[in-house]
Amino acid sequence: MQGFFGVFRYSRRALELVWHTNRGLSIAFALLTVVAGVLPPLTAYVTGMIVDAANAAIRAHSEDASQVVNLVILEGILVASIAAAQRGITFCQSLLRAQLGQRVNEMILEKALTLTLAHFEDSEFYDKLTRARREASSRPLSLVTSTFGLLQNALSLVSSGALLVRFSPWAVAVLLLAGVPAFVAEAKFSGDAFRLFRWRTPETRMQTYLETVLAREDHAKEVKLYGLGQRLLGRYRDIFHTLYDQDRALTIRRDLWGFSLGLIATVALYGAYAWIGISTVRRLITIGQMTRYFILFRQGQAAVSAILSALGGMYEDNLYLSTLYEYLETQVPEPSGSVARGPDPADGIRFENVSFTYPGAQQPALEGVSLHLPPGASLALVGENGSGKTTLIKLLTRLYAPTSGRILLDGRDLADWDEVALRERIGVIFQDFNRYQMLVGENVGAGDDRYFDDEERWRTAAEKGMASDFVERLPAGYYTQLGKWFRDGRELSGGQWQKIALSRAFMRTRADILVLDEPTASMDAQAEAEIFEHFRQLSQSRITIVISHRFSTVRMAGEIIVLDRGRIIERGSHEELMRLGGRYAHLFTLQARGYR
Ligand code: ADP
Fold this sequence. Notes:
Layout: H1 2-9, H2 11-21, H3 23-59, H4 66-114, H5 117-121, H6 123-134, H7 139-164, H8 169-199, H9 201-215, H10 217-225, H11 229-281, H12 287-328, E1 349-356, E2 366-373, E3 378-383, H13 389-396, E4 404-409, E5 412-413, H14 419-425, E6 426-429, H15 440-445, H16 455-464, H17 468-473, H18 494-507, E7 513-517, H19 525-538, E8 543-547, H20 551-554, E9 559-564, E10 567-572, H21 574-580, H22 583-595
Helix pairs in contact: 1-8, 1-12, 2-3, 2-7, 3-4, 3-7, 3-12, 6-12, 7-12, 8-11, 8-12, 9-10, 9-11, 11-12, 16-18, 21-22
Bound molecules: adenosine-5'-diphosphate (ADP).
């Protein structure tokens, strides 16, 4: 039964959501629901009165039909009002749907802005986010609609019951009791379905992922060339069949039980008809009352079955809302620090015995790292893939916090820094930098939000990032749309994108720590060397950190650190490390030989 009560768990919150979205529409929606719930039994009542009035006139041999006609007009008005109420409900729903969808999406995205990187990298969490987004526009309203539908039918049931009581309280009891078995079955199966949905999210997640791989432009190239399409589609299909089999089993059970138990309700209905008929023949009630009770009984039963099916539909909406609220209520660490400058600006960056293990990982990605970079220093990080270079940058930019040890900037622990002040100090271009499907200029301007639209600054930055030459040859220059998702979007080569990304870093003229994590890998060696020259000119009093596999670049750095499985194994200038004859010297010689 617990799963069944889960069906109502989020109704209150869905109602609150709708209420805060648009109060006027919510009130209208609620009032119209009440009207649509109460009026149908009233029409039944009037129908009975019409029959009785006609009957009375016939018995009195009177030809005066005015009372009958008046009552017919009254019923017509009632029926028209029901139609109007239902129309009004639909109207409120469509307006609310649009507003609610937008509101929920905004809530989801606003929350996303406060999340940490670790959240995005957690698959289950990411799954919550995607599911919450995908159905944001339909689910909350759907839950409110079914909750109100439930209310409306409950009202119908109560009003029908109140009128039926005059015939016999037993009739009301039959009406309610006949619905109980089907109700219990529905409760059980709703609970089962609720659990089934929760339990199989990993499969659904895989399906969503396969859809992305099969149908998105950035995956299409490889899928085509390696001929992966059929295999992936096959997987997609297999998952469907597994899920479908489970669904079918549940649906069959549900419908068989629903039908069998529904029969009880039908038997009860016709039993009641017979009872009402017999009572009429025995002159216990009039023909008008008989008509009225027939209709009331039928309406009451329709309300019972509508309530059942509303419950059936609500479990899915609840499932959605539970995901949504779990997502929205995710604990995010309070932005900790508040300081905007440190006590000792001449101290620069300091790592003190820093270790870091990714959440859920067995091995530390960094272990016992200590280093010191005063303003003006330049550092190159060297090491095999997976040795921890990017992780070091992620810690420095406070995307993650060290597991142990501490990182200081200007003599102050990074954790104490105000987030905005800290981020303003640092310009980073990662190897997997973003390729915004926006204008070229905006792609550059993204480097400094304050000057996002400043064409003057775009140009200067692009100049330094060596992007200006090819940008000026584009059809609309800095106003060329990039990316294939939009009309007239241009695609750039890998190296051109990298130049755009570098220009983005040059937008951050105020940042005094610049980090380049292999963004130049697709550029030719000469272009890379020139870029670094620009950076060096820029960075007299700045700190530059580069990650590169090209030793022609690495050797320009003042200090070189060689990482291996998260530990520093060698450090020093190019000359010192060559003299040492260790790993660095070995790798350098290998690469130099390749060039000869
Ligand atoms: P590099 O930049 O030197 O190639 P990284 O710093 O990216 O290496 O990775 C260091 C280690 O941490 C690798 O073993 C990698 O598998 C692991 N790692 C990197 N990113 C994550 C992550 N988001 N979650 C868990 N482990 C990660």
